[in-house]
Amino acid sequence: MAMLLEDIVRSVELWLNLIKKPQPYVDPSLDPVLLVPGIAGSILKAVDKDNGGKEERVWVRILSADYTCRTKLWSRFDPQTGRSVTLDPKTNIVVPDDRYGLHAIDVLDPDMIIGRDCVYYFHDMIVEMIKWGFQEGKTLFGFGYDFRQSNRLPETLECLAKKLESVYKASGGKKINIISHSMGGLLVKCFMSLHSDIFEKYVKNWIAIAAPFRGAPGFVTSTFLNGMSFVEGWEQNFFISKWSMHQLLIECPSIYELMACPHFHWQHVPVLEIWREKKDNDGNSQIILESYPPEESIQVFKDALSSNTVVYDGEDLPLPFNFDILKWADETQSVLSRAKVPPGVKFYNIYGIDLETPHSVCYGSSEVPVTDLPELQFCEPKYITVNGDGTVPAESAKADGLNAEARVGVPGEHRGILSDHHLFRILKHWLKADSDPFYNPINDYVILPTAFEMERHEENGFQFTSLKEEWEIISEEEDDHDNMVNRKPLVSSICVSQTGDDRSSPAEACATVTVHPHGEGKQHVELNALSVSVDA
């Protein structure tokens, strides 16, 4: 009797993108997902070759973190193999593969209790995806790796190839969705460039999140000269010191591969600026501001780190800027530039926005200039910032150089974006973990039903059914409050009729849909409908 009314409601619900089916705890129809982290995003363990293969977690840990970094993780680059080899000859660095690779990229220090969220990596995303119906070992996997190494190191790429094959088999021959974060995007892109046949065989979609496709210029410049901190706040006092991280990263090819791409057409070329005190021919001091683009900055790195040394096992080891690694990294850039998305694979790019992000770096000031370049290691950098995620400029992350299905900017911090519910909503749609064919991640919004009323009565041989339903739309875009308040409601009408036959009676239904604009990106939607049919 009220079929026409139901048709109207169904049409409006489709329009509002409201059709949802309950998500089972385990959804066997989902395609498998492989999570690939970025730099510093994998647990690393040191295996003692002389002590029966005893394992010790060396990254990440809070207790004795600095000492363990210096004794177990410090390394030297071998130009013959392209590997960074740990200084301790008795130690071999491995990545645990527990929980199908997820353990290594979930909580980076599982023993930490207070302030544990500072060592979350993919933790929140894993929890969320399990709610969608993904299952560890069936449709959800992780790939951790030694992030000190080059993104095109043959050993790492061979491990990734084996991982793709094992995930493919474990999921029953389903092609894989790769979700990479940060430098993991460069690793995946290198693999796609060098092993496109394997990539095409096993991969269905690749979603890159916050990938520094053209480098992270401000971040890397200050890392070369001053080191970096993996955690912020009070936890930093118990973690690896910036100096120890500095000495570690100088010998890591992965850091050199994050340098600003010199051949990219930047909107504003990232520079290294230094306030210098110099003497003229007459011996008078002058304060000048020197500016170095990416290629010219290399000479500054060389001079600033010319006397950099560490003491290891009682021996002074020189750790200057490494030109062998730079040469290796230049070839990596060539590999990345040749990458193409294979036929049948879809690529999506999500990048962080709305945070001040280091782009160019300045040392010294007109009042306190730099006299000698080795002083830079002890100077506090000042940043010239651009839009991005706090680490990678949006300009770099967007410039993937690939044929992308979509590129979407999400407000969020570089690592914090992995816990962002806006990101989760986009991933859920692209992974087809929802039943929402009309959701558009680029024009993101959420719809909440708020009221539903239905009444029926008969009068003079006619049956009347009235319905009222309301929804609230919450959009990511926040319009100006005054403009929204002053804007008139939008009213639309829908009418549907049905002619009678032997099996049904004549009927007609009419409805009005009213959209009331509110402030703060909200809209209120009302549906009022009435159907009339001849009482059979």
UniProtKB/TrEMBL annotation:
Q: Which SUPFAM superfamilies match?
A: alpha/beta-Hydrolases
Name a single GO biological process: lipid metabolic process
A GO molecular function held by the record: O-acyltransferase activity
Provide the protein name.
Answer: Lecithin-cholesterol acyltransferase-like 4
Source organism of the structure: Populus deltoides
